[in-house]
Every structure is written in structure tokens, then in C-alpha cells.
Design goal:
Blueprint (H helix, E strand, L loop, with lengths): L20 H37 L2 E7 L5 E13 L6 E12 L7 E10 L8 E8 L6 E20 L7 H5 L4 E5 L3
Antiparallel strand pairs: 1-2, 2-3, 3-6, 4-5, 4-6, 6-7
Amino acid sequence: MSTVHRPSSPRRPFTRGTLRPALVVLALVAGSVTVIPAGAQAVTGAASSATAQRQAASWKLWGPHSAPGKKATAQGRLRAIGIDSDLVQPVGTVQVRGKVTDRTLDGSGCAWAVFRITYRTGDGNLPFTHKHFRNCTASAPKSFRFSHRDVYQVELKVCSHRKATKPTLNCLYGGTWKVLYLAYP
């Protein structure tokens, strides 16, 4: 029987199941470079998120705002809690407290504090609703409070009009709204 002698094949640089030590070190270094900044961002993000929640939960004063002719005033405070900052347009629960005062001397009208609240629906739309508070007792402030979930923006308009069950169209659609809260500037 004769044996055939074959020359040994040149060694392949990477054989199945083995890694060279230099590649292992390089992989570890590359992995740690990627992991360290991500970890630092996570820690920084958590701290800034907690700080943002704390700042958002504090009460912020608004007003006094007056109706044209100074026949009505409103002032109060507002806070936003539970803000979901992961959304492109963040939303949270807004709580509003305040007082509306009728400044008409003869008691001929009523003071109105009208709020326009823009909120997020489940499908991502941003519709708005109105909340209004009326005071028809001259120079005696009337307190109010409300809260609303998933709020993106809160605006205020102060009006003085005749005694009625709803604010007039002129109050709702004339003049400008004052922005009290905006989730994303």
C-alpha cells in the first residue's frame, strides 16, 4: 500500500470555533465603548426626567388677567402632573385653581373665566374643549377648580358680559387667548 503525502494547507486565519485573542480584546473594547455612553445617557435621562416631573408638579401662578375695560378679572395657579415626555407632543394631567371677580359696580353683568383646553385623544388628534366659570356678584371673588387629563395646552380668556348661562360668542371667538400652559414649547 502506498501513502500519498499531501503538503499541509496554509493555515486559515479564522478557524471555526476559535477566536484570536486580539479579536476578543477588540470586541470587548468596542462593546464597552457602546455600553458606557448608553448607560450614561440612561442615568442622565432618568435624572432629568425626574427633575422635569418635579418641576412640572409645582404650582405656577397665572394672572391677574382682565377683561377689556377691566370689568372682570381672573387669577389663580396651575400645575401639570404625570407628563409623558416620550411623546412628540407630550401630555399630562393639568389641575387649575383660581378666582374670578366681577368688577361692574351696578351688578349689570357677569365676569367669565373661559378656558380652552387642548387635549390628546387615543388616535393622536388634538381637539379642544371649553370650561367656563361665571361670577355675577360684584367685587366678591368666586373660586373655581378643575382638572383635565391628556392636556397639551391650556388657554384663558376673561370676559364681562350680561347675565347668561353660557359665555357669548364674542367672548369665545373675539380677541386673543392667553396661553397659561403649553406642554411642548
